[in-house]
Specification:
mainly alpha
C-alpha cells in the first residue's frame, strides 16, 4: 500500500508540474503523440457511428424507418446507387457533421426512456420527427439532398414533363428547395389531417417517388 501511495504521489507531482521534471523535447513529443492518438481514436469512433449499420442497431430505427426505406427508390433502383441513413441525415462536412452529432445526441435519451420504442409510439411521434427534419433541410437549402442531386447536373429532357416543369419553375429559380416537394421519398408521410384540415397526400409523394 505504501509503495502504491508513493507511486501515485510521484505521478501527481509530475502531472501537476511536468515542466519541472521533464525536458521540453519530451513534453513536446509526448503532446504530439497524445494528440495523434486522441484524434485517431476520436475520428474512428465518429466514422463508426456514422454508418447505416450503426443507425439500425437500435430496434426503433430498424423496425420503423429502415423498413420503410427498403421499399423506396433510395434503397433499390435501376442504377444500384443506394442512399444510407447518414447520407440524408448527417452533413458530409466535418464541422457540420460534429454539430449534427451533438444535436442528435438527445436521441440517446429517447432510446433510454423508450420515447419511440413501439410502432404505436413511433406513429404518435412521426409528425413531430418529420417536421423537425423538414425544417432542418429547409434551413440548410436541402444540403444533404444536394450532395447527390445537383441541379446543374440534371438533364431535364430525360425527366417527365411534370418534374421538368416544376424544377424549371422552382428549383432553378431558388424559389423552393428540394424538401419542399420531396417529403415522402424515403419514409411514409405522417397524417397531417388534424393539423391542416383538408390535407391529403398526393399519390406521387406517398412513400416512393422517383421525381
Amino acid at each position: 500500500m505504501r509503495t502504491l501511495k508513493r507511486y501515485l504521489s510521484a505521478f501527481w507531482r509530475i502531472a501537476s508540474r511536468p515542466s519541472a521534471y521533464l525536458p521540453l523535447g519530451v513534453l513536446t513529443l509526448g503532446g504530439f503523440v497524445f494528440g495523434v492518438v486522441f484524434w485517431g481514436g476520436f475520428n474512428t469512433v465518429l466514422e463508426a457511428t456514422n454508418t447505416e449499420a450503426f443507425c439500425v442497431t437500435c430496434h426503433e430505427m430498424y423496425e420503423n424507418p429502415y423498413q420503410e426505406l427498403q421499399q423506396t427508390v433510395h434503397f433499390t433502383n435501376r442504377t444500384g446507387v443506394r442512399a444510407t441513413c447518414p447520407d440524408c441525415h448527417v452533413p458530409h462536412e466535418w464541422t457540420d457533421k460534429i454539430a449534427r452529432k451533438m444535436q442528435a445526441s438527445k436521441e440517446v435519451w429517447g432510446h433510454i426512456f423508450g420515447t419511440i420504442s413501439t410502432q404505436a409510439k413511433y406513429q404518435d411521434h412521426r409528425l413531430v420527427m418529420a417536421k423537425r427534419e423538414w425544417n432542418r433541410l429547409k434551413a440548410n437549402d436541402s444540403h444533404e439532398c444536394r450532395n447527390c442531386h445537383r441541379a446543374e447536373a440534371m438533364d431535364l429532357v430525360k425527366q417527365n414533363s411534370r418534374a421538368e416543369r416544376i424544377h424549371q419553375q422552382f428549383l432553378f429559380t431558388g424559389e423552393r428547395t428540394c424538401i419542399d416537394c420531396h417529403k415522402g421519398i424515403a419514409h411514409r408521410l405522417p397524417d397531417m389531417s388534424d393539423v391542416e384540415p383538408g390535407w391529403t397526400v398526393e399519390p406521387g409523394l406517398q412513400g416512393d417517388s422517383s421525381l
